[in-house]
């Protein structure tokens, strides 16, 4: 299994000569080939993989945290399958890897006699990620732009026949859709700046509790019940030099996330921490499954209630880290999710 004929003009082709990681399991699911690049990509020595069950030699999880081998079931699944397209999977240490599979059968619809896997470094997906971003943005833009075009065309062609109530409804909808497009464009610019390292932080003295209360008041003014929110400040905070606009963006995104995807009261707890301040945003919903926690801050991640571009928490993480802070997600004391970020007190940009 380690070599193949390369013709009369050269030595036999070895598995280690291939540009991708290659893993081969026999009819019984035992690994019979594990080339050097597969060992390099996975961190699993070939000597420990050969002869083991493929599921133990190469444990893989989907991006949803579920065991990939249980869901794909190569040996017991659909007998008509001959291949598995390349997809992003996770190793036990949460590193991402691109995996594709070929199912070799004794005959069409017959038993699997060989499982052939190819592995590639996930960094090879950079171009694909950009294509995914373009596709996702095009999808998100289509709906509001279609609405704007439809209502403006109706207003222009039927202005005299429409009632004031109908005109007001259409104009309010156009205004809301324009705001939606503007937010999306701002998100795209933030993603670009984060990925290129060009995100600027303009520091000034910020009253953190006042900023939080003002942001919550804005949510209440927009229609949310006042008792849906609770703000708590614990201890004396140092003077905080932060980017006020980016701080409001961080807080607004986390609170909105708690309102949309959580339940019960959304609490914001502000407290001093070493060298700065910590802010915890908690809800009382079902929380985030532990196996999905490592993927929460990645581009395009969405919870069970899908919607939006899946860029919000990726941007939040980038904004926090641009301040020199950190952000984590875990389980809140009353259940639900808790997003906790810390930011250093900072210093002014000039003396």
Summarize the structure.
By secondary structure, this protein is an alpha+beta fold.
Low-confidence parts: none
The amount of helix comes to: 25-40%
Q: Quickly give the structural class.
A: alpha+beta
> What is the β-strand count?
14
Spatial separation of the terminal alpha carbons: 69 Å
Q: Report strand %.
A: 15-25%
Numbering strands along the chain, what is their spatial order in the largest sheet?
A: 4-3-7-6-5
Outline type: globular
Average pLDDT, all residues: 84
What is the N-to-C order of secondary-structure elements (H for helix, E for strand)? EEEEHHHHEEEHHEHEEHEEHEE
- Helical stretch tally: 9
Largest sheet features: 5 strands, antiparallel
Rg, nearest Å: 26 Å
Report on this model:
- The strands form four sheets. A five-stranded antiparallel sheet has the order 4-3-7-6-5. A five-stranded mixed sheet has the order 9-11-12-14-13, with helices on one face. Strands 1-2 form a two-stranded antiparallel sheet.
- The protein is built from nine helices and 14 strands.
- The radius of gyration is 26 Å and the shape is globular.
- 37% of the residues lie in helices and 23% in strands.
- The chain has 351 residues and is α+β, with helices and mostly antiparallel strands.
């Amino acid at each position: 299994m380690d070599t193949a004929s390369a013709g009369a003009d050269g030595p036999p082709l070895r598995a280690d000569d291939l540009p991708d990681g290659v893993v081969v399991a026999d009819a019984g699911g035992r690994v019979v080939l594990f080339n050097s690049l597969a060992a390099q990509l996975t961190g699993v020595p070939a000597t420990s993989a050969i002869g083991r069950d493929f599921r133990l030699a190469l444990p893989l999880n989907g991006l949803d945290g579920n065991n990939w081998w249980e869901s794909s079931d190569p040996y017991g699944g659909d007998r008509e399958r001959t291949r598995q397209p390349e997809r992003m999977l996770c190793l036990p240490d949460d590193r991402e890897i691109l995996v594709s599979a070929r199912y070799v059968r004794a005959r069409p619809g017959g038993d699997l006699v060989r499982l052939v896997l190819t592995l590639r470094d996930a960094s090879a997906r950079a171009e694909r990620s950009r294509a995914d971003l373009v596709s996702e943005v095009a999808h998100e833009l289509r709906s509001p732009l279609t609405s704007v075009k439809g209502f403006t065309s109706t207003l222009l062609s039927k202005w005299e026949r429409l009632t004031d109530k109908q005109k007001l409804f259409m104009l309010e909808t156009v205004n809301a859709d324009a705001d939606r497009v503007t937010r999306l464009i701002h998100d795209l610019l933030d993603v670009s700046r984060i990925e290129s390292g060009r995100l600027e932080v303009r520091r000034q003295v910020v009253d953190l509790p006042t900023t939080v209360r003002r942001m919550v008041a804005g949510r209440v003014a927009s229609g949310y019940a006042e008792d849906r929110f609770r703000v708590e400040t614990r201890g004396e905070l140092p003077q905080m030099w932060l980017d006020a606009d980016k701080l409001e963006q961080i807080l607004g995104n986390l609170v909105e996330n708690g309102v949309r995807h959580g339940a019960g009261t959304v609490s914001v707890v502000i407290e001093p921490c070493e060298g700065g301040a910590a802010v915890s945003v908690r809800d009382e919903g079902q929380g985030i499954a532990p196996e999905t926690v490592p993927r929460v801050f990645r581009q395009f991640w969405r919870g069970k209630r899908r919607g939006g571009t899946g860029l919000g928490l990726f941007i939040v993480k980038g904004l926090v880290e641009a301040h020199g802070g950190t952000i984590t997600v875990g389980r809140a004391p009353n259940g639900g999710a808790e997003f906790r970020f810390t930011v250093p007190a900072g210093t002014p940009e000039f003396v």
